[in-house]
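Narrative progress, year one. The postdoctoral researcher (J.K.) led the effort to move from monomer predictions toward full complexes, under supervision of the PI. The following entry was the first complex the group processed end to end, covering 226 residues in total.
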Amino acid sequence: EVQLVESGGALVQPGGSLRLSCAASGFTFSSYEMNWVRQAPGKGLEWVSYISSSGRTIYYADSVKGRFAISRDNAENSLYLQMDSLRAEDTAVYYCARPRETGGAPDYWGQGTLVTVSS
Amino acid sequence: AIQMTQSPSSLSASVGDRVTITCRASQGIKNDLGWYQQKPGKAPKLLIYAASSLQSGVPSRFSGSGSGTDFTLTISSLQPEDFATYFCLQDYNYPRTFGQGTKVEIK
């Protein structure tokens, strides 16, 4: 069974840092691209970042470019999101999401981890 | 970035009703579109991929159509468990972009 389990969400002050993790199981993690998607309280979904299966290709939303860094450890079946210079508008539930086997729209999502940026 | 304009933002419907939600892309995206259902406190659930392909395990009352810039999600006969928020997602290129969402409420 495919499972994605996020962790690392917390309350952090503006300007602070946080590292999110996503533990993957039930599939060959090293064969899949991965994404982070977030959802601010009561708002819609916002794509945050993408990483290829090898880790060599990475994309970011303009809203996080230069502040967030996506990475992965295929030996540990884990995906990460390093979040620096956090702002109030980064407050959201963060999901890791795996595209379908043939690519495209993610079919597996974690349960999400809440990041709150507030003083 | 491709903009996805979803409408309506909300609708009220009764059990058994036929419901239609639309998404329009700001440029052509072939058939690279997915539809999701989300319930409060839960992760999104993929319903439709490649604009019209039903994801495994999803009831056949859900269907998708369209290509290029205009797409539609149809629920043929609304069931009590279908009251939720629905989003479209273009997976044509990066940055990926979602529609704003449609909240389907009980009339």
